[in-house]
Protein 1
Amino acid sequence: MKFYRWPSIEQFHHIRKSTKTYPHIYGDMSRVKYIPKVKLHGTNGAIILKRDEMYTQSRKRILNSFKDNMGFDLWFRGAKNYWEKVRDSLDEDMIVYGEWVGSGINGKTAIGSIDRKVFCAFAAHPLSGPTEELPLIVEPNNLKKLLLNDKIHNDVFVIPWLENEAIEVDWSLESDSFKDVLSKANNLVYKVEKLDPFVKETFGVEGIGEGVVYYPISHPGRYYFSTLAFKAKGEQHATIKQKKSVQVNPELTKNVKEFVDLVLTEARLEQGAREVGDGTLSFNTKRIGDFLKWICEDVKKECKPEFEAANLDWHPVGKMLTSKARNWYLERFKNS
C-alpha cells in the first residue's frame, strides 16, 4: 500500500509571496483564473482504487479497521460494492480525494449538523506517473461522471462550484491591483460563513460554513493546484486573527505577545486537539506533549510569513506558545 499525500492549501498572501519570489511557479502565464468551492469543515479522506487493492487514507496515514479516522474506513468497507463498481468502470487506477463530514465530525458548522456522516469528493487523479505531473480532476461534472454515473450511493456527493464566474489574478502585477479580487473573495467568504449554500441545498440544513477554496482552473494539473490554489476561512474558523479572510500581505506584529495572540486562535487550538485525539475534540493529559508539539510545528509551517514579518526569535515565541497552549488544554481537560 502506498500513501498519496494531498497538498497543503495556503492563504492568498502566501501565494503572493511565493509567486513574487519565484515567478516560474505560474510558468509563462501569470494570469490565473480561479473558481471557488465551499470548504467543508470535516476531516480529509481519500479512497485509492487499484485493480489489485482498494483502501483508504486520512491526511497523514493509511487507514485500516484497527487505526481508523472517525469511522471513514469502516464506512468504506460497508460501501465496498459501490466502490468496486466505480473502480471497474475506470480505465486506470485512481485516487479520489474528499472530505469526510457530518454528525460528530468537527461541529459548529452546518455540515456537522446533518443526520449522518458522508463523503464529499472535491478532486481525483490517476496513479500513473510522477505525482506532481499528474492531471487533476476538479470539475464537478467530471467528478460526477466518475463517481455517480450509473452508480448510486446515498452517502457520496460531489462538491459543486460555488460560483460559475471565474476571478482572474495576475500575479505579476503590484499589490494595489488586487483590490477588486480581494473584495470579491472576502464578500464570498462572508456569505458562506453566514450560510453554507451547498449544505442547505443538498441536506436542507441551514448554518454557517467554514470557508472557501479557490481552484486555479486556467492552470490544470496537480502541480499548479499545489502551488496556486488558495483557501480563505471565515472569522470563526480562522487560525490567524488577520483583518480580512483574504489579504495581500501578512499581519504585522511588534513583539512576541502580539504574535502569539495573532496565531494562537481557538480554531487552531481545537484543530490541534483533534489532530492528537484521533479526530475527536477530546482531552487526555497523556496527549499534551503531542498537542504542544503539533501547535508549535503548525505555527512554524502555517505562519511563516507572519513570523518573518515580525522579525522575532523562535525561542521566546515557542516558549509563550507552549505555555498558553498548555494552559488552554488543561483548562479544557478539567471541564470535559
Protein 2
Amino acid sequence: MSRPNTKGYFVRERLTEAREARDVTQADIGRPLNRSGSAVSNWERGEQTPEPTTLEQLASVLGVFSSYFGKDIPNYGGSAIFFRSMANATKRVRTREKARVRWLQHTSLELQEILEFPAVNFPAFVGPDDYRKLDYPDLEHIASSMRAHWRLGDGPLQNMVLVAENAGVVVGIDEVGSTRIDGQGAWCKADVRPYILLARDKYTAFRRQMDIAHELAHLVLHYGIDDEQLEKHFDTIEDQAKYLAGAFLLPDKSFPAEIFSVSLDGFLALKPRWKVAIGAMIMRARQLHILSESSAHSLWKYRATRGWNRREPLDLPTETPVEEPRLLRRAIEMIVDSGVRSKRDLLASDIGLGASDIEMMAVLPPGYFGGQAEIIPLEPKLKESESGNRGGQVVPFPRPN
C-alpha cells in the first residue's frame, strides 16, 4: 500500500519562497521535522513531496498555513526588484526582501479576487531601455510631467504614500532588520501593477517621503529592466532614481523661491513644509546651483557637527507623524466588515500567510487576526474543484482620499 503524499497539490516554489522570506536554510527547516536538509532540497526541486502530516509540520515551522503550499505561483514576470545597494553584505537581506515582495504581490492578487483595486495610472514617461539616454535636464522634465499628470501642482507634497496609492501602487510595510535596505519597488506582470515594500527600520516621516519618491522614480524610469540589466547598469539606475526623487519632491522653480537662507537653520525652517530632510535639501540646492560645491561641503560638515547626520530635528514620530499605507488595510477591513469573508477564512483559505505577516504588511493592529494561535494547520487537499466562483461577487474598491 502506497504512503499518502501531496503530489498534485504541493507547489514546490512556495516552499522556496517561504524559506527565503523567513531567511532560513534548508537544514534549519529540516531539523525540527527530523529531516535532513537534502530532504528539504528534494522537496524544493520537485523530486519528492512531503507527506500530508509533514506538510502540516512544515507550515507550522514556517509560520504559514498549509493551504499556502497548494497555491499556484502567479506570473510575476521578469522585472527587477530595485534595491539601493548591491553590496555582498546585503545579498542575504535582498534575497529575503525579494521573497517578501512576492508575498506582498501574492496578498494583493488574492484580495483582487474579491475587490476591484484602483486602476493603475502610470503613463509611459520613458520608453523601454530609454533610461540610458537620459541626462539631468531630462529628469527635471520628467519630474514636472509626473506632477502635471497626477495634478499635484508645484508645491510641497505632504503624503507621498497617498500619491503612490492614488496612482495604483500597492504599498506594504516590512520589518527588515537592516538599515541597509530602505525599500524596494517592482512591477508585477500578473496584474500589470507596481508594488512598493517599505522598510519600517528607518521610521521617520521624511525618510518615508523620500523612500516612496525613490521607488516611484524606479517604477517610472526603469519599467521592464531585468536583474541582469540592473546589475550591469546599477550605478546609473540608482543615480537616476535618486535625482528624480529629489526633483519630484523639490521642484526646480517653486522650491528655490522659498529658500530665504542657505544655512542649516534656513533649511530647518523649510523642513516641516516641504516634508524633506535637511540633507536632501542641501543636495537639491547644490544640484540647482543655489549652493556652490564648497558651500555645500561646509553645510555637510556643520550638519555632522550638530549630530544631525544621525538624526535631524523633527525626525521623531512624536514630532512628525509618519504616513502609513491605507489600501491593503482598507481592503482587508472592507472584506471582513462586509461579511464576504471571516478573518480566519481570509487568512487561512485565501492568503495562507501568517497573521503577523499580514498585520505588518497592511499596517493592521497587532492581533487583528487573533494572533498566531489562530494558525491551525489545515489538511491538504489533494484535488481542487474548478467549479464555482472562488471570489464571489467582485466588490469595487474606492480610490484612497
